[in-house]
Write a structure and sequence with these properties.
8-stranded parallel beta sheet, about 290 residues, TIM Barrel, 10 helices, Metallo-dep_Lactonases, Amidohydrolase family protein, single chain, alpha/beta
Length: about 290
């Protein structure tokens, strides 16, 4: 697919340099039960030059990096490294760091992240357990995001619907970006209906946006027809100004090269207006992440 004016802002990708930082899930021990399955093919450096080369065919112009250096005891080290990469090479435009919001020192850690110009917020993975979203220590740390006008990248699925909605209502001024279409884990009709009900409930909170990404982690034999219903439903529920496309590169790269995936997204929304497509591929990510 070609368009002279098409530009892509990738709302969700990863970089890693195995010599620069500690990525335990890549070098020490496998992530047990990872939805991507065997990810040994990506246990090598994926640096910004690789991202730029992969994104060149679809005019990648900006990007948002999501934390992945799980072996670092100090997550600010990843932010510092990414900022040095961005200063040199222009990407990533936004940095979402690992957030240790339950720690007593989380406010001080956020302030250290804020020393780097491209820092925009944090993600805290839900393998800590779904109850974390209502934990008193977590809520105290989350208030630190509110005070600093930072983004929370939400890793949650429909099992967490009530807690996600309660969190968004408690902190209506915090921008929350729900990752990977609410991370649907199964591909049955019954699950789709349950997922849609949960997503409609989540969308009632106007401070939550939805990232259209990560579907290939579960759908390894994917096709345009298999991922389109999830994407179309998210857009119907949240609207184009609260939806943004991401590649989850290089994880989704296990099952499709970068341009193939982006062009699949483009085909799915080909009948949308030019303005709607610009929102999905560029404007929403720029607005929500302020990049």
């Amino acid at each position: 697919m070609e368009s002279d004016d098409f530009a892509f802002v990738d709302a969700h990708h990863h970089l890693w340099d195995l010599e620069a930082l500690h990525y335990a899930w890549l070098t020490d021990r496998p992530f047990e039960g990872h939805p991507s399955g065997d990810y040994s093919a990506i246990k090598r450096n994926h640096v910004v030059a690789d991202l730029k080369a992969a994104g060149a065919p679809v005019n990648l112009i900006k990007s948002v990096h999501i934390e992945t250096a799980d072996g670092e005891t100090d997550p600010v080290r990843e932010t510092a490294w990414l900022q040095s990469v961005a200063d040199r090479d222009g990407l990533p435009s936004g940095i979402i760091a690992r957030g240790e919001l339950m720690d007593a020192g989380s406010d001080a850690q956020l302030d250290r992240h804020l020393e780097y110009a491209n820092f925009r917020g944090v993600r805290m993975l839900t393998f800590h357990g779904p109850d974390i979203l209502g934990d008193a220590a977590f809520l105290r740390g989350f208030d630190g995001l509110r005070k600093r006008d930072l983004v929370f990248d939400m890793d949650a699925d429909i099992a967490h619907t009530d807690k996600v909605v309660a969190l968004a209502k408690r902190f209506p001024d915090v921008r929350i970006v729900l990752g990977h279409c609410g991370f649907p884990k199964r591909r049955t009709v019954d699950y789709f209906h349950a997922w849609r009900k949960g997503m409609k409930a989540i969308a009632q909170a106007p401070n939550i946006a939805c990232k259209l990404s990560g579907l290939l982690m579960v759908d390894h034999q994917w096709s345009i027809e298999s991922i389109a219903p999830w994407i179309e439903e998210c857009i119907e529920i949240f609207g184009v100004e609260r939806c943004m496309f991401g590649t989850n590169w290089p994880l989704d790269g296990l099952y499709a090269d970068y341009a193939t995936l982006v062009n699949a997204y483009r085909q799915i929304v080909a009948d949308y207006s030019a303005d709607e497509r610009k929102a999905l591929f560029q404007r929403s990510a720029e607005s929500w992440y302020r990049i």
